[in-house]
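Before relying on records like the one below, remember that each one covers exactly one chain. Contacts with other chains, cofactors or solvent are not represented anywhere in the record.
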Amino acid sequence: MVAYRNVEEGEMKALVCVRPNEIRVEDRPAPVRSEGEVLLRMRRAGICGTDYHIYGGKHPFLEYPRLIGHELAGEVAEVPSGSRFAVGQVVTINPYIACGTCRACRRGKPNCCARISVLGVHADGGMCEMLSAPESAVIDAEGLSLDQAAMVEFLAIGAHAVRRSMLTAGEEVIVIGAGPIGIAVALFARIAGAGRIVLVDTRAPRLAYAREHLGFAEGVVADVDMAARLAAMTNGEMFDHVFDATGNIHAMRDGLNWLAHGGSFTLVGVCKDDLVFPDPEFHKRETTLIGSRNALSVDFDHVIASIRSGAIPTDAIRTHALTLDEAPRRLPELIAEADSVLKAIVTIA
């Protein structure tokens, strides 16, 4: 096939961020499967906030150049002896490669492994024609389309955050940031039975899209009148659970203002700055402050089951499509078009 014209010669196409604001498709050596790994033909890759931050030079955990991509879908090309996978099988990837031996790993928290290597961040990712990955990181995506399989990882971020919050049915939720991660949080809060979900964003078109296509009727634009509107909506009591999915230090510092007494504040976004709260406000609420990082296998399983059941409107989530060759041109355009972009999916082959 033309898309793999170099692979048979030991080369493949790969999308590489060379330095901030410079990204290109390069020919790179195709991977050779090592012991315990599965060789994959990559078919789809989602573009997420991490990729935009890498392009913009804003990611705190990255060295350039970097082959990006961690929202991945592919087909099995080669397996080790006795593998649970079969050639041609559609799979997704858990991109958080943990050491397996640190304290977090020993406690069953490989998502926050002390020596974690995230594909597309700490190590080269999967926005390329071929990828060899540990079999333990490969996840069966039977019953999902390739586009759906490429959405599993970012949805798992939201599922993990909701599970971390201990949200129970009937509780009221506010999600700050209506981008892909915020929408993922809102979707899994709805699945968990939240009594009310309010989305907040600086971009009114994002809130309109969430209302018209995803069923989130309540949205508030983040502006000077936001505090008064939220107070009026809740009789001044605010929300049982606040989720920040912005990664914006100003929004994160303000998040405590939207929290009801006795509630939890879950930080899903990450930024480079110091986060400071006024202690009296923090203590009088008996605030539960939660950091949510990456996701666990149970979250991936929950996402896949939810997609299969039809609880996740994946057709509405995918708003843009492009090819690998178009990506260097389209990536900065997608950033400029952020008002209308929810999830862009790259077709690799």
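The two ends are 9 Å apart (CA to CA).
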